[in-house]
Every structure is written in C-alpha cells, then in structure tokens.
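A student in our group prepared the protein record below, which I am reviewing. This is what I was given:
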Amino acid sequence: MAESELHVSGIGISKDVVSTIVSIAARRAEGVASVGGNDIASSLISVFTSRSVAPEKAVESFVEDDQLHVTVHLAVFYGYPFTKLAADVRAEVARAVTEQIGVGVSAVDVCIDSLVFPKE
C-alpha cells in the first residue's frame, strides 16, 4: 500500500496535491499535449493509441534528502525536440514546487510515453 502523504521540511503534503501542482506546471511547457491520463486530451489520445498512463501514476513523487523527487509521464506533440521539451518541463516543475510548496526539488524525471501527431 502506497503512502498517500509526503513528509518534507516539517509538513505533510498529499501526493494528490503534489501531482496537481506538477501537472499544471508541466502543461505550461511548449509541446506537452497532456500529463498522464489527467485530462480530455489524454482520453482522446488513449482512443488512438494502445498506451495510457493511469491518472494516479501520471505523477509520482517521493522525499529524498528533505527535497522532492518527481517523475512525470507525458504525451507530447510531434515536432518538439525531446531534450529541450524535457528541460522546459523540469524548469517549470521545479519552479512551481519551490514557489507553491516551498521545498527544493532533487530531481524531475520526464517520461515521454506517447506522441501526438497534429492534424494537417
């Protein structure tokens, strides 16, 4: 059974709260179609692809040396270089976690799980 709360810097934070903050931040990065299975776009994507990530697995987080270590699963639009997109997602997520929660981020692992092709 996974623990639903993280304890970092003297506070308890629901993993769902962390997931919401991370998801909103990751969507700000240009080229991100959706985060895991958290929105309508990913539901449509799952109709056309064989893969989809369960919403509760879209963002995973744990405490590491009193900082958060985050993994985010994405569907991305074709045509955006993965390395730049991942760097942008890392920057957005780290900034949002630091600003909103007030704790540092030890790492942001970006998993590109599916590719979305725009209509021509």
Summary: The chain has four helices and six strands. The radius of gyration is 14 Å.
